Structure formats: C-alpha cells, structure tokens
Amino acid sequence: MTPAARLQAAIEVLDEVIASARDDGPPADTIVTRYFKHRRYAGSKDRRAVRELVFRAIRRSAERPASGRAAILGLVEDEPHLSELFGQVRGPEPIVGGEEAASAGVVPDWLKPELSPLIAEAEWGALLERAPLDLRANIARMSRDALLVQFDGASPTALSPWGLRLPADSRVDDHPAFAAGFVEIQDEGSQLIAVACEVGQGDRIIDICAGAGGKALALAAVAPTAAILATDSNRARLSKLGPRAERAGAVIQTRLLSPPNELEELADWREAADLVLVDAPCSGSGTWRRNPEGRWRLTPERLDRAVAMQQRLLAIAAELVRPGGHLVYAVCSLLSREGAGQIQDFLAAHSSWISDAPAIAGGRPDGAGRLLTPGHDRTDGFFVARLKRAC
Fold first, then answer.
1. Is the bond leading into 260 cis (omega within 30 degrees of zero)?
2. What's the pLDDT score for residue 216?
C-alpha cells in the first residue's frame, strides 16, 4: 500500500469506528483486525501504519467526529505533511475549502463537570497516554522476584506488591510463565482493587460482577483456601474464567445470574459473605488510554444507566454481607457520580455501614474512598471504597 492508500484505509476504518461507537458495536481494535482480514494484500507494515493513523485520530478528538474524513482532516491540522497525500492515486479525495475537521480535545465538554475535582486539567493529557503492559504474579505458585528475571525489560510496579511492568509492545501470551499460570495480564490499578479487599484464608467471598475473573483470580492467589464465588449476568464473559482458573491452579466457583433475580439466585449467600466485591459496570473513563474511543461511546443517557445499575448492585451486595463483613466497591471511572458520590449516597441510605478506608498504596482520598489516576499513579483510573457492616 502507498502512504496515500494507507490514509484512505484509515478514513474507512474510522468511519466504521464512529458508527460502532454510536451504535454500541465492537471496539476499534476489533474493527481494524476485521478490516484487514478481507484485504490480504496489505502487509504487516501497512496494517501497523493504518492502525497508528486510526488511533492517533481517535486520541486527538474528545467528541465523536462527523466522519472518518473529518477525523483525519483534524489530524492534518497537527500533521500538515499528511495533506500531501490527498488527491493521490488510491488516496483520499482532494481537500476542498470549507470541509469540517474534527476538533482537538481530551475530555468531552459535557463530561468535564462530571470529573472528580481531584483531576486538574494539567492531568488530562495522561488520560490518553499509551498504557504499559502490567502483569500480576500468581503468588500462590511463584513470587514476583522469581518472575522478574524471566521477562525482558520487566520492573516491579511501584504500588502493587504483586505487579511487574513491561514495555507496552511486549508479548506474553506465548511466554512459558504465562502458559504455566504463573502470571496474568492485569493493570496495576486493577491489582490494587484486590489488595483493598484484604482477604484472609478461609474467607467466604463473592465477586458479584466477575466478568472474565481477573480480580477473582487475584483473590484466589492471595488466599488459596478462601471459598470464592464469581458471578456475572454475561455468560460469554463468565465462561472465560474456567480455563483461566485451571491454568492458574485456582479453585473458583461460578454462577450465572439473571437480572433482576440476583438475590433469589444467591439466597444461600444471604448475610453469609465475609467479603462482597462489586467491580461495577461503569463509564470506563479510567481506561481511555487503552480504549480512547470510549469517549465517543459515552452519552448522558448511558452514564445515567450505569449509575442506576451501580446503585442496584450495591443494594444487592449489602444483603449478602454478614454482620461485621466488608463490601468493596470499585469502578474504572474518574467521574464523581460513579465513585465518591455513589458511596456517599449508599452510606446515607444504610446507617449500619461505615467507611473502612482501603489500605492501598497510591491514590488520593476522594470522599469515602480513594481515586487512582493515570497522571498521579501511572495506573488506569479507578475509584475504590471499602465499607464495613456493623456487627
């Protein structure tokens, strides 16, 4: 492919990404892969170049552009040399006066008032920096120190006692330590959520929004004798946990739930859990550096639905915790309504619960919890609170 053809391909991919963001379809990475699956003539350099163009354009624009061409025209404002490729053979049509170019920005205008007041504008750039690759040592089977020497360029993470950090382009899925279940791919911030749980051997634990089970696996590594139940309402996500647990040597039970019947389906756990972890569905604003088109997907209506879902899940979790037990609430969000505001409302409505500050390194106090951010902590953005039910 010529440079002009690559630019035209980026426009076509961006058109699909924009439509997918509007319609809640597949992520940008999936769209790029699918695009080239049907274009076998494109070599690895072509695929890499197009992908980089696509993601530079996505990272540049906080608001969803009108079209892929508008997104690239915006990129031209920062990279004027790209204008030379318009009008070339197999390239984009020539630029004409008055064409709309996507505006530059980090945070969508409507979301700025929703951000936690802890996040100053000087930190916004870090929300879109390229994320490193973090691993979590499966300490039930091998120490972090023993693993550090097995990965080129690895260094210990600053905040998680189990974390290793690798260069962003590292591959680990074919590494012997990964195949043997000695490590899992997990951002340091996500590891700190498991640290905040402070689990002990023999504890009864429910991970109520387990997804593919990353945090349940971390809890099992810390306390192999704990009884852990991982639940979710998404069969496809939850089905991924079984093979992962087998590789890690972890014993984790799973249960598929059917909203709004969760409490009935968890009747045997009512007031019986030492710990309930609610890693709730959210805006995903803490993961923009990994999924920058997430800014294009989020709308006020989708945010309202996420906040309502979080409230409902907290109410369910409160029914499952035994007297004297704990509830840990986490969201990969930087928005106050999903974090500090959510817990403030919960505590106001549940007088028998108190805040029990999470004992984690890093982060900053944010209401009754702590907020981790890319700019302050070099992790994905997370809010985490630890609450205790009165005896």
1. yes
2. 98
